[in-house]
Design goal:
With 462 residues, the protein is α+β, with helices and mostly antiparallel strands. Helix content is 19%, strand content 42%. Among the domains are: 86 residues, PmbA/TldD superfamily (PmbA/TldD fold, 2-Layer Sandwich); 231 residues, no CATH class. Strands 1, 2, 3, 4, 5, 6 and 7 form a 7-stranded mixed sheet that branches. It has a 6-stranded mixed sheet with strand order 12-11-10-15-22-21.
Length: 462
C-alpha cells in the first residue's frame, strides 16, 4: 500500500539537509484498529477506528528534533521541516541522496486481516464461549473478555536514499475471571496473541481460554499466606520472562547505555550472569507478538545475542544509539506510532533453553517458592531494582510442591538475579506484553524456560 508521494518525500528530505540537518527521515503510518469487549457474557463494546499521520525527524549531530502532523499537504509539511530546523539554520547545508525503493518480503504473513475480514460476529461468539466456560460451576462471579486486532501500514523514507514499506497485523485475545470468597476477590487471566490475523484463534480453544482463567482464580482463592525472607525460587516459563525484560532488557538498550544510565554500559564482554544463562532479543520468530519484518527506521530485523554463557555479548542499537556509542545497529528502532520518534527497544526478548528439568529444580529446594505465573511490578531505571507480584505461586518444601500461596512478591535487582540463576529448563515459552518507554507503548514478547534462582528476597504476609 502506497501511503505517500516519493516526490514530496524527496523534496522534504532535500529541504531538511539544505537547512543543515545531517540526517532526516520520514515515517508515514496508516493504522486500522478494532476492539471488542464482553462483560459477564454480554457484549460491552465494539470499537473501531482509523488513524493516519506522518512523523519527521531531523538529526543535527546526535541532537534529535521531531514533529508530526495529520496534514499531508506539501506546504504544511515543508513548514514543519522549517520549524524543526529553525534552531540550527546557520549550519552548513547538506545534500540528501536520491530515494531508491527497497523491497522486503513479508516475514510474518497473515490471512484473516482486519481490512479483509473484520469477523465481528465470529469474535463475539468466541469471547462469549470463553465466558460461558469460565462461568461453569457458579464459583466465578465476573468474567471480562476482549479481542484486539490491529492492522498497520508504514512507509519510511530517509536522506540516505532509503524508501521501504511494511505491513503489520496484530491480534490479541484474553479473558479475566474473578471469584469472591470471604469478602475478597481473586482473579485469574489468560491470553494469546501474535503478529498475525484472526486465523490465530483457530489454533486456540475458547473453552480452554475460559477454563485456564477460571483455574487460576480458584487456585488463588484457596491459597495460603506466603512466607517471607530470602529463599530459592523456581520461576515458571513464559511470562516469567517479564523480570528479565524489565529488570535487565531495558538496561541493554542504547537509550540508557549511551547516557551511561545503565549499570551494564561498560560491561561488554564481562561476566554478568551465571554461565548457564544465554539471552537473546529477536524479531525473527514466525508471527510472534514482538516480531517485525522491518524496524521503524526501515532496517530488516535480526537476532541479537545479549548474553552468551553468562557474558554480556551485545546491546540493542537504533540509528541514534549507533551514532552515540559506535555499536552497529541491530534493527531495534521502534515506536508506538507516527507521534513518537523511534528509540532502541526490545522485540521478542527471552532467556534461551537449558538442559535442566523442572522436576529436578523443584526437587533441589528444601524450602522455597515456585512462582508459576508472574504479574506486574515496579523497576528502578538504571539499576534494575525490581519488585514483581507473583499471580500464581506455590510453597515448596522437601523437594515437593505443597500448596498455593498468595500475596507473594519477588524483590531483587536485575544484575543480582542474573548471577543467582543456577538451573535453566528446556521448556521455553513466549508470552505477549506491551512495553512502555520513551517512544511509547509497543508489542513485545517476553519469555524464558523455567529456571531456578538460588536466592532472592520473597515478600509475603505469613
Amino acid at each position: 500500500m502506497t501511503l505517500f508521494s516519493p516526490q514530496i518525500a524527496q523534496s522534504l528530505l532535500d529541504q531538511a539537509l539544505s537547512l543543515g540537518a545531517d540526517f532526516a527521515d520520514i515515517f508515514v503510518e496508516r493504522q486500522q484498529r478494532q476492539q471488542i469487549s464482553c462483560l459477564n457474557q454480554q457484549v460491552e463494546s465494539v470499537q473501531q477506528g482509523i488513524d493516519f499521520g506522518i512523523g519527521i525527524r531531523l538529526l543535527f549531530g546526535t541532537q534529535v528534533v521531531y514533529g508530526y502532523s495529520n496534514n499531508l499537504q506539501q506546504q504544511s509539511l515543508s513548514q514543519l521541516v522549517a520549524e524543526l530546523a529553525k534552531r540550527y539554520q546557520n549550519r552548513d547545508p547538506r545534500q540528501a541522496q536520491p530515494l531508491a525503493w527497497q523491497m522486503h518480503p513479508q516475514q510474518h504473513p497473515s490471512q484473516r486481516t482486519l481490512l479483509q475480514d473484520p469477523a465481528v460476529d465470529e469474535k463475539v461468539q468466541f469471547l462469549l464461549a470463553a465466558d460461558r466456560q469460565a462461568k461453569l460451576g457458579e464459583r466465578i462471579s465476573t468474567t471480562k473478555s476482549w479481542s484486539l486486532q490491529r492492522q498497520q501500514w508504514v512507509e519510511i523514507f530517509n536522506s540516505q536514499g532509503l524508501h521501504c514499506a511494511d505491513e503489520r497485523n496484530y491480534l490479541r485475545v484474553g479473558l479475566t475471571a474473578i471469584c469472591q470468597q470471604d469478602g475478597q476477590q481473586f482473579s485469574g487471566s489468560e491470553n494469546f496473541g501474535g503478529q498475525i490475523g484472526w486465523e490465530l484463534a483457530g489454533q486456540h480453544s475458547a473453552s480452554g481460554l475460559g477454563e485456564e482463567a477460571k483455574r487460576q482464580a480458584l487456585i488463588n482463592a484457596s491459597a495460603k499466606p506466603c512466607p517471607s525472607g530470602r529463599m530459592p525460587v523456581v520461576i515458571g516459563n513464559g511470562f516469567g520472562g517479564v523480570i528479565f525484560h524489565e529488570a535487565c532488557g531495558h538496561l541493554l538498550e542504547t537509550t540508557s547505555v549511551a547516557k551511561k544510565a545503565s549499570v551494564f554500559h561498560d560491561k561488554l564482554g564481562q561476566t554478568i550472569a551465571h554461565p548457564c544463562v544465554n539471552a537473546v532479543d529477536s524479531g525473527l520468530e514466525s508471527n510472534a507478538w514482538g516480531s517485525l519484518t522491518l524496524d521503524d527506521e526501515g532496517m530488516p530485523t535480526q537476532r541479537t545475542q545479549l548474553i552468551k554463557d553468562g557474558q554480556l555479548a551485545g546491546f540493542l542499537v537504533d540509528y541514534v544509539g549507533s551514532l552515540q556509542t559506535g555499536y552497529a545497529r541491530t534493527g531495534s528502532g521502534r515506536r508506538e506510532s507516527y507521534r513518537f520518534a523511534p528509540a532502541s527497544r526490545m522485540r521478542n526478548t527471552y532467556i534461551e533453553p537449558g538442559q535442566d528439568s523442572f522436576d529436578d529444580m523443584i526437587a533441589s529446594i528444601d524450602k522455597g517458592i515456585f512462582a508459576a505465573r508472574m504479574g506486574g511490578g515496579s523497576v528502578q531505571p538504571g539499576t534494575g531494582e525490581f519488585n514483581f507480584a507473583v499471580t500464581e505461586g506455590y510453597y515448596v518444601e522437601n523437594g515437593k510442591i505443597q500448596h498455593p500461596v498468595k500475596a507473594c512478591t519477588l524483590i531483587s535487582t536485575g544484575p543480582e538475579v542474573l548471577k543467582e540463576i543456577s538451573m535453566v529448563g528446556d521448556d521455553l515459552a513466549l508470552a505477549c506484553g506491551m512495553c512502555g518507554s520513551v517512544s511509547g507503548s509497543i508489542p513485545a514478547s517476553v519469555g524464558q524456560p523455567s529456571l531456578k534462582v538460588n536466592s532472592i528476597v520473597v515478600g509475603g504476609n505469613a
